């Protein structure tokens, strides 16, 4: 059993009443990642994976298939999980998805329910990538795995039933940051073409220097200490320094022009708030059509942790609506 120290939780007065009631009814301990050894982190991953595996998938006609596809040069193959609508079909919209987990945890299995929902509601084909995790695999391994999976998805679009002109890239939290970075790589390497980017509370900036990172240092979920730990796991001692690639921390990118249209959302009460607001503003300034949502009284991952709250339902519907517009469905 992992032995991470549990910190007391601080509730902000702006916290949405429904979210407050939910977390007061079932308090969520905040794990002190800074005190956790690598062995304890691995044990924590195993516990999380076991928990996810024990949750039954929703009853669905969506077909789910795992494949191993070519990885980056001189690197292992990458597992992808493919979700197809019942009845198959051709030239469907495509969503290439990147899971969250602070760069240190997670797998495609975590997002099965979300992907199934998108497939059922939008008739799309989803491909979710299982990238290598830090600290065992620091930058650039995670983003290169994500890019390799995107290249395979684009090359295999006809076989998968995807319309290559309607392939979006999306992700949440660390996956949102990796999605933004993967889209930057696709632009700078001349492909694949990406029609849209769906960035949900993305982890974009390693510098830990925004007002929100201080204001919400004791955030309900993914606090400042955890964020520092995740970036250090990915970048080592380079985190926060002058020599960090924008493909690791997309907020470092100086040029955001020529990127596909974007959707970004974030909660008011999370460390990512200001970096996400700034990224959305800079995308718009660069001529990229951008939709941005700031959810009042919301903490990181609120919609997954309290899915029945009105604010959570509103956030999910906004994402679906954005994809509908992007796909023309």
Shape: globular
Range of helix content: 25-40%
Question: On the 0-100 scale, what is the average pLDDT?
Answer: 93
H/I helix tally: 11
- State the secondary-structure class: alpha/beta
Gap between N and C termini, in Å? Answer: 47 Å
Q: State the major sheet.
A: 8 strands, mixed
Please tell me the total number of domains: 1
What is the secondary structure topology, with strand pairs?
Elements: E1 6-7, H1 17-25, E2 30-31, H2 38-54, E3 63-69, E4 78-84, E5 92-98, H3 112-122, E6 125-130, H4 141-155, H5 157-160, E7 162-172, H6 174-188, E8 196-200, H7 211-215, H8 224-235, E9 262-267, H9 273-285, E10 290-295, H10 302-305, H11 310-327
Parallel strand pairs: 5-6, 5-7, 7-8, 8-9, 9-10
Antiparallel strand pairs: 1-2, 3-4, 4-6
Helix pairs in contact: 4-6
InterPro entries: AB_hydrolase_3, AB_hydrolase_fold, GDXG_lipolytic_enzyme
GO molecular function, one term: hydrolase activity
Organism: Nonomuraea wenchangensis
């Amino acid at each position: 059993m992992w032995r991470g120290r549990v910190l007391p939780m601080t509730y902000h007065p702006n916290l949405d009443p429904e979210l407050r009631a939910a977390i007061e009814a079932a308090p969520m301990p905040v794990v002190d990642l800074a005190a956790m050894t690598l062995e304890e982190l691995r044990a924590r991953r195993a516990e999380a994976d076991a928990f996810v595996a024990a949750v039954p998938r929703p009853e669905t006609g969506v077909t789910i298939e795992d494949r191993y596809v070519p990885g980056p040069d001189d690197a292992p193959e990458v597992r992808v999980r493919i979700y197809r609508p019942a009845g198959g079909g051709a030239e469907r919209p495509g969503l290439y998805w990147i899971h969250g987990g602070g760069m240190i945890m997670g797998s495609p299995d975590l997002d099965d329910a979300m992907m199934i929902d998108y497939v059922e509601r939008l008739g799309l084909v989803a491909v979710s990538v299982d990238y290598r995790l830090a600290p065992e695999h620091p930058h650039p391994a995670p983003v290169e795995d994500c890019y390799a999976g995107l290249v395979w998805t684009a090359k295999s679009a006809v076989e998968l039933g995807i319309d290559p002109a309607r392939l979006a890239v999306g992700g949440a939290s660390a996956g949102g940051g990796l999605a933004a970075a993967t889209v930057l790589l696709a632009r700078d390497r001349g492909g694949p073409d990406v029609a849209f980017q769906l960035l949900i509370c993305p982890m974009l900036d390693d510098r830990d220097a925004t007002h929100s990172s201080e204001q919400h240092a004791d955030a309900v979920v993914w606090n400042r200490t955890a964020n520092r730990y995740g970036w250090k796991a990915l970048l080592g001692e380079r985190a926060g320094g002058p020599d960090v690639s924008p493909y690791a921390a997309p907020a470092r990118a100086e040029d955001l022009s020529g990127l596909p249209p974007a959707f970004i959302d974030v909660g008011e009460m999370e460390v990512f708030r200001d970096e996400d607001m700034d990224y959305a503003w800079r995308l718009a300034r660069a001529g990229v059509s951008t939709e941005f949502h700031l959810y009042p009284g919301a903490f990181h991952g609120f919609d997954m942790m309290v899915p029945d709250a009105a604010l959570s339902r509103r956030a999910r519907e906004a994402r679906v609506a954005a994809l509908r517009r992007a796909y023309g469905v």
